[in-house]
Design a protein that fits this description.
By secondary structure, the first copy, chain A, is mainly alpha-helical. Chain A is built from 7 helices and 3 strands, in the order αααβααββαα. Chain A has one domain: Arc Repressor Mutant, subunit A (Orthogonal Bundle). At the A-B interface, helix 1, helix 2, helix 3 and helix 7 of A face helix 1, helix 2, helix 3 and helix 7 of B. Chains A, B: Keywords: DNA-binding, Transcription, Transcription regulation.
DNA sequence: GACATTACTTACATTTTTTATAGTACGTTA
DNA sequence: TAACGTACTATAAAAAATGTAAGTAATGTC
């Protein structure tokens, strides 16, 4: 993750693609190793940082943070901080994030079918 | 693209995720900068290498080759070579590839909606 | 006062993906 | 005989994504 370099060809290509293809735009948002899986867990309801971490096998705290930040930036998840000690932070899907549900379910079915085929 | 290093943590994580989450498995297959867009063009019917290239703004021949190879390997597209000179190669979706259509359409709609929101 | 808890942050290393550029094979056509 | 068109391959380099390891803040408990 980290910052994307706005002078790179890659950046320009992503932009151009996203501009004319909404599915590429969408793919940019929910792409990445963990984004979809995080969303699919959040479909079941709010989860804390630590709970998510437990559900995602082997994810590092860094990656989880980065992905959640990206999802938050894209208004897919909402982050709520409770100023307690130790801190408590809850994540939940926004309405548009929740609208990914049918897509995720469909992808899941497709993936299963594809797996059987291979 | 190129080869993925089977000893890396990243490889192990992808495996583990794909094993238990079919949506992550699916994401691995149709992930990458161009895969979805290529598929979405192929939904309209067979296309030659050169035709695809024209439709994809700025893609390099190398990337197009790599993505098509990956899609072929995953049985999403079928490659037909006509041994003529100059050569002619046609790409088309397989049945399972074609089943991505509703997902792509759905993603497209979602992407459009999301775009409006931002 | 040391320690545990939680959700991070930071610096750095490695791996993977993408881009850049040049070159190839091969009959056909000029 | 030399250039042309097509669908590639080879090699290198840049950029992006992911992983490793350590550290932080605040406070309540031992």
């Amino acid at each position: 993750m980290s910052k994307i370099k706005e002078t790179s060809t890659n950046f320009a290509n992503k932009q151009a693609l996203a501009d004319e293809c909404s599915e590429a735009y969408a793919a940019n948002i929910i792409g990445g190793q963990w984004a979809l899986v995080i969303c699919s867990w959040l479909i079941g309801g709010k989860l804390r940082f630590g709970e998510l971490k437990k559900k995602l096998p082997n994810i590092t705290e860094r990656m989880l943070t980065l992905q959640l930040r990206k999802l938050e930036e894209n208004k897919i998840v909402k982050r709520t901080v409770y100023t307690e000690v130790p801190p408590r932070v809850e994540y939940e899907l926004t309405p548009i994030g929740y609208e990914l549900k049918p897509i995720i379910k469909h992808l899941e079915k497709w993936g299963q079918k594809h797996k059987d085929l291979m």
